[in-house]
Amino acid sequence: MASLLAAFILLPLLVFLLLLTISPRKEYTISRISFVTVSLQLIQLMGLLLSWAIAGFPTLTGKNIVLLQTDHYTFVITFYFDSISAVYAFVGTVLTFLVVIYSRHYLHREPGYKRFFSTILFFFTGYNLTIFSGNFETLFIGWEILGISSFLLIAFYQHKYIPAKNAVKVFSVYRIGDVGLLLVIWMSHHLWHDTITFSKLNNYVLVHDHLQTHTLIGVFISLMILISALAKSAQLPFSSWLPRALEGPTPSSAIFYGSLAVHLGVFLLLRTYPFWVHQFSVRIAIALLGLSTTIMASGIARVQPSIKVQIAYASIAQIGIMFVEVAAGFETLVLFHFAGNAFLRSYQLLVSPSVVSYLIREQLYAFYPIRRSLEDFLPRRLSFTFYVLGIKEWNLDSALYQYLWNPLKLAGNQLNFITLKGLLGFFIPCYLIGLFFLYYPNSIPASIRSYLPIFFSFIAVIMVLKAFTERKRARVAWVLSILNHFFIVLAISFNETFSTVQVLIYLSGVCVAGIVGYACLVRVKLAEKSLSLRQFHGYGVRHPILSFIFLLACLAVSGFPITPTFIGEDLMFSHIRENQVILASFTALSFVIGGLAIIRIYARVFLGPYKKSMYEMAYRSY
């Protein structure tokens, strides 16, 4: 069974790499390979489930793969299979199989035919890693793959303005969930003083003994898990991203946002259920947020003019009920509910183009008056109020901008004094002075030295804020995003002593990818003469190879699994103590906002309508 599990995870990844070598013009070859792959996946899954049933439904744990080990830290990839994984794997494999069959003809002669199937297989790899993960580190690898797959699928129509804009918007919300998981991994190291696995979380005595003496830490971890689940499953206050994610092709919307990825927040709650089940306040918070989302999303779905948006909010409402069911302890009911909702929403999205034509026909030839509904029993003023709020989607998108993104942009706009000259005149000398104090600790008082980790991590946050809000110079934003990692290393070096090898592991990926990315930007600047970040330039149309290379550099710098940067980021968190919440928050913010800034550079430079095309250029107000 362990070999079947390993093959099930590796097959889509290997085929994804194979598809990268095939010419985009060979549609038949691409579709045939994809079809054979998902068919083999389905056969393997049936074999795995049959073997699992014959053995008596045991809980399986895969062999640990140690990527890095130090005296106080071990980065391990491990796998775990139980009834939750079985249900999610069955639903995911069947739906992927159906969507691949549907897409073979639906996307015929689409310019991004190869890109679509490659991304779907890449997404399926991340999905399998997530549902079969045996610890938080492995889950985070799959979580990140799903995030970048989401970005690529939403921006599938790269030459259009709205898909590129919404792809960045959705990726921004995903990064909020990444903050939660990063802090969960950090605090879990200090709670357990070990790499905790999900199999150990099922040990009631072990969990109870640790939470008895670390109550606040347990609540903190549970709340961070909840934030990650809310962001991934589009629950309040993050519900507005799901309808914006439907800009990609209908098949990708069906498999990604209608059925599989949007339910992974529920999966995270189910997987960590033994940890937070005895924290009554956390269960109340999960139930209230789920119930509030259900009520709000149901009202919005009833008045939206777009059928895909209606389906999206209907799915959000059902997932809110699942949150309530998880909080109430109905784990088996949640799994049935997930399977039913996933199949239903996938079907609805796949047939939505046909349904629109059917409804138009019915309006013309078979009109029936609207029956009375629940709203008819409410006072007219109250009914109209709910109607307007539903049309405006309860202003959730505006609220997210007003209370989250606009403050970040406002803070970043106060840093307009930062230029290349400013980098050379302030930050570089500041970094060199920090290195001097690091290697000659006696030259600075101990009372001041204790504040240096927070000081340098705060500078890193300032850098990524400026990179995130930079409008004029793409290369300045890129350099700031690279230097952010150097200041993080400097801050953690003052906090705790560790080997130079760990620094080299972390910064090796940053330096190589940073140089490659900067060279790509220079090349584009020489060719196109303009490289501002005020608008989407769409240079990927003319420079597809540079676009692909720069995307790889972006992934490496932002800590994409399993790059040296990704492992290095986890290493840095292992050297932050449990009582250093400010330092951990600054470090997490710098990683997350830095990743946003880097993806924003890629989107603004290479996505969107190309200025020399026949289409009018869409500008963003600022």
Task: Summarize the SSE layout with pairings.
Blueprint: H1 2-19, H2 27-54, E1 60-61, E2 65-69, E3 74-77, E4 80-81, H3 83-106, H4 113-131, H5 136-154, H6 161-192, H7 198-201, H8 204-213, H9 215-232, H10 241-244, H11 250-257, H12 264-271, H13 273-276, H14 280-303, H15 307-328, H16 331-365, H17 380-391, H18 396-413, H19 420-439, H20 446-449, H21 452-469, H22 474-495, H23 500-528, H24 544-557, H25 564-574, H26 581-606
Antiparallel strand pairs: 1-4, 2-3
Textual characterization of the structure:
The protein has about 625 residues and is an all-alpha fold. It has 2 domains: about 1-365, no CATH class; about 415-605, no CATH class. It is about 75% helix and about 0% strand. The chain contains 26 helices and 4 strands. The chain has a two-stranded antiparallel ribbon with strand order 1-4. The longest helix is centred in the middle third of the chain and has 35 residues, at about 330-365. The radius of gyration is 25 Å and the shape is globular. Residues about 615-620 have low confidence and may be disordered.
